[in-house]
Amino acid sequence: MKIAKPYLLLFILLATHVSLKAQTEQLKNFDAFYRVFADRYAFFDIHHVNWKASYIKNRPAVEKGMTNDSLFSVMSRMLKPLADSHVSLTDAKNKRKFNAAGPSQFATEFYNDSIRTVFWKMVDASLKAKGFDEVKGYGSVFKGKHLFYFTRRADIGYLRFSRCFARITDGELDEKNFETAVLDSLMAQCKDLKAMIVDVRANIGGDDKFSYEVAGRFTAKPVVGHYKQERIAKTNRYTRLQKWMIKPKGNYAFEKPVIVLTNDKTVSAAEIFTLAMKQLPQVKTVGSHTEGNLSDMYSAELPNGWELTLSNQRYYSPKMIGYEGIGIPVDVQVLNSRSNLLTGTDPVVDAALAALKQSMK
Q1: Any residues with CB less than 8 A from the CB of 326 and at least 6 apart, and which?
Q2: Which of 2, 21, 96, 251 lies 20 to 30 Å from 131, alpha-carbon distance?
Q3: CB 68 within 8 A of CB 22
Q4: Could you give the C-alpha distances from 59 to 23, 45, 88, 244, 306, in angstroms and in order?
């Protein structure tokens, strides 16, 4: 026993050193986490979050020491009130991710991929019952979905896109290839039509430039689509407003009546598309308000390798109205529900057709 005491003391000292080092590392990560959001995030006011108070409340627990799992939980809990789907915390090493997305009526009704697949089959069948040809997919495939879906009947065309990018290469959006030739070939089939429906319900977003490529097929002259600005780091000031113009694209402009379909899972670049289209005189929107997360995503890495994303930009309509946190409203509100799967009828498409019937008189 006498011989073992020095080794026991050494073990205690080493364990204490390791524990203090781990505690210091956790504090370093926690403070960096706080600082990134304090310096960059653009919407604490909109979401009524006192970020500094949240930091002060949670730091003592981190000071006492905690596991990586506990630290991840603390950070996630601090982010949740932001209700912003562009806010996330990712621990790639342990394959875990927290996203701060707020509640969604559509996501509650159609809560997984298999049910959403059934939903889109119902939409396609509902269109066919209204005299449209079979819906077909065009363009590149991402996660089992074509870039575009298209059908038409004698007087009305239907165009759907579930994302605002063609491909992802090495983890990055391909900003050079928007498959415009595919889009032009589909728009060419619309020349003789009296109206169109453009469906961006549950569109996951992507690249704003893609959104403007599509919107540009619906105007013959430049139109202001939106303004944006970025928070200047470590200040409460923003960069000068940047004006985005919808410029004519493609071989001709479809300026006849258009209905854009949206819901509360229409997000990011799809919201930018919606905002741009609403500036065109022939366009109305049907469905429900968009998600309300328009900003691009700013990313940062913590000392331990965890990745953060957040919203650091503010988008405005040409009338300087911001829709972050509330979504872009529709002209005619109609919701989808699981009961639609039983009836086999899409009430949003029905409402769009009714609105077009009035505008085509």
Answers
A1: 289, 292
A2: 251
A3: no
A4: 12, 22, 20, 42, 18
Q: What is the pTM of this model?
A: 0.93
Residue for token digits 């239907």?
158
Q: What pLDDT is attached to residue 345? A: 97
Predicted pLDDT at 21: 62
- Tokens in use for 248? 């004519």
Coil/strand/helix, residue 226: strand
- CA within 13 Å, CB half, 210: 26
Start-to-end Cα distance in the chain: 100
Give the strand order in the sheet containing 96-100: 96-100, 84-91, 307-311, 297-301
> Whole-angstrom Cα distance, residue 82 to residue 48?
8
Computed from CA positions of residues 135, 136, 139, 145, in that sequence, does the dihedral angle turn out positive or negative? positive
Bigger pLDDT: 18 or 242? Answer: 242
CA distance 196 to 194: 7
User: Could you identify the residue written with the tokens 């965890």?
Assistant: 306
